[in-house]
Amino acid sequence: MSTYRIQGATGDWEVVIGLEVHAQVTSNSKLFSGSATAFGAEPNSQVSLIDAAMPGMLPVLNGECIRQAVRTGMAIEAQINKWSRFDRKNYFYADLPQGYQISQLYHPIVGEGSLTIEADEKAGIPADKVIGIERIHVEQDAGKLMHDQHPTMSYVDLNRSGVALMEIVSRPDMTSPAEAGAYLSKLRTILRYVGSCDGNMDQGSMRADVNVSVRKPGDELGTRTETKNVNSVRFVMQAIEHEASRQVDVLEAGGKIVQETRLFDPTTGSTRSMRSKEDAHDYRYFPDPDLLPLELDDAFLEACRASLPELPDAKRARYEGELGLSAYNAAVLTADVDTFAWFEALLAETASAQGKAPAEVAKQAANWLISEFFGALNKQGKSLEDSPISHEQAAELLALVGKGTISGSIAKQVLETMFETGDNAGVIVEREGLKQESDTGAIEAKVDEILAANADKVAQYREGKVALFGFFVGQTMKAMAGKGNPQVVNEILKAKLG
Amino acid sequence: MPDTSNSLTELGVAQIRDGVANGDFSAVEVAEAFNANVAAAQEALNAFIIATPEKAIEAAQATDAKRARGEALGKMGGVPIGMKDLFATFDVQTTAASHMLEGFKPQYESTVSQKLWDAGAGMLGKLNLDQFAMGSSNETSYFGNVISPWKRNDGGNAALAPGGSSGGSSSALAARLCPAATGTDTGGSIRQPAAFTGTTGIKPTYGRCSRWGVVAFASSLDQAGPMARSVQDCAIMLEAMAGFDAKDSTSLDLPVPNWEAALSGDMKGKKVGIPKEYRVDGLDEDVSKSWDDGIAWLKDAGAEIVEISLPHTKYALPTYYIIAPAEASSNLARYDGVRYGLRDLPDGANLQDMYAATRAAGFGPEVKRRILIGTYVLSAGFYDAYYTQAQKVRALIAQDFAKAFEQCDVILAPTAPSAAFGLGENVDDPLKMYLNDVFAVPASLAGLPAMSVPAGLNREGLPLGLQVIGKAFDEQGVLNAGLALEQRAQFAAKPEKWW
């Protein structure tokens, strides 16, 4: 149980949160037409007669969108409804050509499911928590109004009109902004694993309607408000914080919460009223008579199930168990599709480059990826997607470290050069003479020089000032331009200092 | 050369098809003859919203050229037809008889019309109809009433309704402006106008003809079908119109039978059901008599007559007037002035104002009435009492038919409770107008094939129709019973030319 509370003048308040997430289904064409769905196309360049709701046009269901919704449902271990149906949600708006949105009110394709958010002490999530998901239904997106094209008129772009969305409705199981943020992140991760949504929140592929209410601990649920179309994890958390505090202020001032739809303003981090329940639409839902009920057979469901990838929770457990990674590393590496894909490719290359089993090099690869490589990418403002080096190149670098050809600190330097030049690690090490010196004779010679030049410190060391050992290591390494094999240097120093 | 232009317009689909194929006359001659009749009757009958003589000639020339090259002609080769203005026709104004779509030229062709052109038919013009196919008298058209060519034999000159919504189709057929026409039937819109004008029409099983490109009224009921002057002609044209269409999710994925080839008026071994609930109190005497005639004719054709019960019949009309307007209220939401058709944008208007002004100006009173009814029955708090309940009754009505068809092969009933009425007689009483479809609506709700064939004239000299209702997918059974009636009714009456 989250300990998140809002301290009001009259005491502590609990927050109750539910999210309705709209996720654009990854598919080449729209839910009921053959139009393309690419982001950022010229306005009205991806509009069919159906999308423009010309007279006599009829919807034909795109099976791929259904397949993706079913796979998503399976990924949250939800009940898949073998019989579902499409309903019309009727309202007038210029971005809605048909005058109704085809959606699923009465019989959604996916029923009850759940996902688990992980414990995060720092964020105030003391333990793993299961968040219920009530349903997923499939529906059409609307078009987009453009108000900045003409002084007195609005233009409409129907490219998005009819694009398939999944509406994923959570239970009101979240009790803090952090939990809601974690839920949204986890959901995004799952969708990206499954490949049913690209999760690009900045392109509107994923957006959340945030339902918030507050209550005194132990009281009945309070009246909720719904903040529409919030399009990042951070904004969702901000919207909740703002909305919960606002509600507490209203209630403590003796007011009442009005059930209403609100808008989030990212520039101020606050919410404002859009419309109240009184002027809410009567959507006059009824089954769409242009479409037959959707019936799924066992073979289809089996094929959907067989096509599911290893999911985040399973992958994370395997990384910790089979690969022996730390919980932290496993969490970082499984948080996103791009990350684990890079890691797994790197792991395979590294194992083969060093002739070892993956489990034997997993820690090395994971540590390097997280502490060295991510940092280097960050410094350049790059992501894995546009990484200047390939995982094959990275594996070669790791193999050089693994075989003792270069030291870890030299590897850092080599990576920097790789970023700059794109050259392979082996070439750079060769060219710049960075090979590690493991020859005991050469190291002994250097150590002797250092000890001779620092006789006073040797004396102090022998008198018991053992902390000086690091000084001798540093001096030796410096004298060898960092190329001395640290292990051999240590051993020789220890032997010589007695 | 004898002047054939007059007699050519007396010919039906089969005769024209065969005559053109045999070289008895050319397709262009046929098209010219009908084009002339269309032009001559337009002012008096107003059957067409627009005539397209050049389209008819173009198609006829193509057929003649094909024949000259020795190529096989299509099922409708050389046959010019009227196209109800509910079917989208490429670059030809398509209005649904509404101001809302005046001037609208679709850049696509409906599946059904395309199939007809592919079969060799040509287009004489776009036929008038009740606005958005909502009406039973063709009086709701924005483009004016269609007048029936028929007159009562009382010496008066009252203008009569051709029925609706396919009133342009029925009037044009009776007046020999075309040998065949498309119709659509949501709750009797093919059968009732056919009955009113002494013509023949069949509404096939729901899903036989694609709805793609047909302006929607009530999606779960709308079904296109042929109208002509004989059962055989209907069979030929239905073959050309029907067929699975992947663009219509409710389309039937079944092969199209060769209905014409299997036509037979022999009813031996067939059972004909007579629904007792259709014998309503106060049923018009002449209608009742023609029904008895029909029973006798089918008996004569070898059929056994059985009484059947369709107990939920009395709920059919109220059920229809919930479901059809509900769907219509949603289907017609797209006419909003944003993308095509009429836009009424008063000075300083915002979006809501534009919607209101556009829809107020664009829709006629009957369309508005049905949108309001439909909006009401779907609204929160009323949905279950009306729409849900109506869907349940609809299922019961379908079940009535399923049970009845355990006892019989086809059902015989009147098409309409009366002969054609005078224009204006029913316009002030929507309920009375709706009653016209009382016998037609049950088969629509059940999605069953049903046709109307002329049975004879009533005492006023006006045609009456008999309706045959069949099992789902059994258009053949319906056509055959229709043929048996046609052979015995020997209906040869035609309106005396006054236009």
Overview of the structural elements:
The complex is a heterodimer of chains A (498) and B (499). Chain A has 498 residues and is α+β, with helices and mostly antiparallel strands. Chain A is 39% helix and 18% strand. Chain A has helices at residues 63-75, 177-194, 233-252, 298-306, 312-321, 327-334, 337-354, 358-379, 391-402, 408-421, 425-431, 440-453, 455-462, 469-479, 486-497, and strands at 6-8, 11-24, 83-84, 87-90, 100-103, 113-117, 129-140, 144-146, 155-157, 164-170, 206-215, 225-230, 260-265, 270-276, 286-287, 294-295. In chain A, the strands form 4 sheets. In chain A, strands 1, 2, 6, 7, 10, 11, 12, 13 and 14 form a 9-stranded mixed sheet that branches. In chain A, helix 7 (337-354) packs across helix 8 (358-379). An 8-stranded mixed sheet of chain B has the order 4-6-5-10-11-9-7-8, sandwiched between helices. In chain B, helix 3 packs antiparallel against helix 4 (53-68) and helix 9 (285-300) packs across helix 16 (475-489). Classes of the chains: A alpha+beta (498), B alpha/beta (499). The A-B interface holds A 49, 52-61, 88, 90, 92-94, 97-100, 154, 156, 282, 284-286, 289-292 and B 87-88, 94, 96, 101, 104, 106-108, 110, 211-216, 218-220, 246-250, 326-327, 329-330, 332-334, 336, 338-340, 351-352, 355, 375, 378-380, 383, 387.
Task: Give the gist of this structure.
Chain A is 39% helix and 18% strand. In chain A, strands 1, 2, 6, 7, 10, 11, 12, 13 and 14 form a nine-stranded mixed β-sheet that branches. A three-stranded antiparallel β-sheet of chain A has the order 5-4-15, with no helix packed on it. Chain A has a two-stranded antiparallel sheet with strand order 3-16.
| Overall geometry of chain A | elongated
Largest interface: A-B, 30 and 44 residues
Number of helices of chain B: 16
Report the uncertain regions of chain A: none
- Percent helix of chain B: 25-40%
What is the helix content of chain A? 25-40%
- Strand proportion of chain A: 15-25%
How many DSSP-defined strands of chain B?
A: 11
**C-alpha Rg of chain B (nearest Å):** 21 Å
Shape of chain B: globular
CATH architecture of the domain at 5-264 and 449-456 and 466-489 in chain B: Alpha-Beta Complex
Major pleated sheet of chain B? 8 strands, mixed
Based on secondary structure, the structural category of chain B is alpha/beta
Query: What is the total domain count of chain A?
Result: 3
**What class would the helix/strand composition of chain A place it in?**
alpha+beta
Q: What is the class of the domain at 5-264 and 449-456 and 466-489 in chain B in the CATH system? A: Alpha Beta
* Fourth-level CATH superfamily of the domain at 5-264 and 449-456 and 466-489 in chain B: Amidase signature (AS) domain
